[in-house]
Automatic annotation (TrEMBL), chains A, B:
Record protein name field: TetR/AcrR family transcriptional regulator
DNA-binding region in chain numbering: 36-55
Residues of the HTH tetR-type domain: 13-73
Native species: Nocardia stercoris
An example molecular function term from Gene Ontology annotations: transcription cis-regulatory region binding
Keyword 4Fe-4S attached: no
InterPro entries (alphabetical): Homeodomain-like_sf, HTH-type_TetR-like_transc_reg, HTH_TetR
Source organism, top-level taxon: Bacteria
Alphabetical keyword list: DNA-binding
Amino acid sequence: MATPHEPKQDRSRATRQRLLEATIDCLAEHGWAAATVSVVAERAGVSRGAAQHHFPTREDLITQAVEYMFDTRMDQVKAEAMALGQVDQGAARTLAVVTALVESYSSQLFKAALQVWTHAAADEALRSRIVPLEAKVGRVAHRVAVEALGVDDSDPVAHHLVQATLDLARGLGLADVLTDDSARRKEIAEQWAATLHVALTTPR
Amino acid sequence: MATPHEPKQDRSRATRQRLLEATIDCLAEHGWAAATVSVVAERAGVSRGAAQHHFPTREDLITQAVEYMFDTRMDQVKAEAMALGQVDQGAARTLAVVTALVESYSSQLFKAALQVWTHAAADEALRSRIVPLEAKVGRVAHRVAVEALGVDDSDPVAHHLVQATLDLARGLGLADVLTDDSARRKEIAEQWAATLHVALTTPR
């Protein structure tokens, strides 16, 4: 919570961030219909008026929440991958990167984003806001994965296998929505990492 | 539409099937909220009373629609795969099976099922009906894929790579919900089929 000595601008930034995080939690736990500005504001401990000052419409709140949390998550994956690159090499690095990517897509953020994507399928106004965000998410996730794996993206085999790894991660995320799929997911990620590593390092 | 000479039982079966198909179309095109018994009945050209005779609740209609369409689809994939096994062998067969599986998950049925799965995440009553259906879907799709690829499922590498192929297909299906992803999907399926074929045929 804000303290009396906190500068006004910092308080405003903290309020905004609490709203964005509460939006993700509401979407992931209670679904699209429940994630209204009022419910999110209450969860964040912010008045409805203050919430609407930051986010005039529900669509503003929801799309900005997904984008903010995605950016935060990708910064984490990038930092983890850079730290990793200095320690592990070879198959161990590939496994660590595949595991980090796969776990990203089984997060609360993925569950929230799934609610938004699915709702956008039948809501033209929301869809027109989500399509550019989806394109950005795809681009950034691909770049982070390429850097983390240390592969040459101009090689079409490497390019397509990195894409496939992200599609696999998305599919595994979907399999975790209704039940805890973590044990099976771990086995799949291990096998995928081993197969991917051989494919990426086979001379062409 | 039913003709006066059609036996009553056949008419009833045809009505039921029209309702199940209309449910999938409503879900895929207009989303969860729009797929009510009334809307589906109207789309199927069936009275609301007749629809409720077949499916007392909306959950009955929706879960049975997803199960029926999944069974139908898997029968098709199985028949295609059996025909395939007599023509193609080796890498061409692997590519054909991967393509058929991937395209299954980008169908109208997948888009409908995604609406149901996503809604079930925040609806305990629906979730308790969908979780056993999800388990069945996973089991049957795995068995069909194993038979179609002609691999030994008791080999853990083959088992996990077949699972990964289905997870990849699910992820690619999700990428097709808001935009037409068919061109990218084709490239990913081709690369994965090549990598999978090498991995499955490398002596262990």
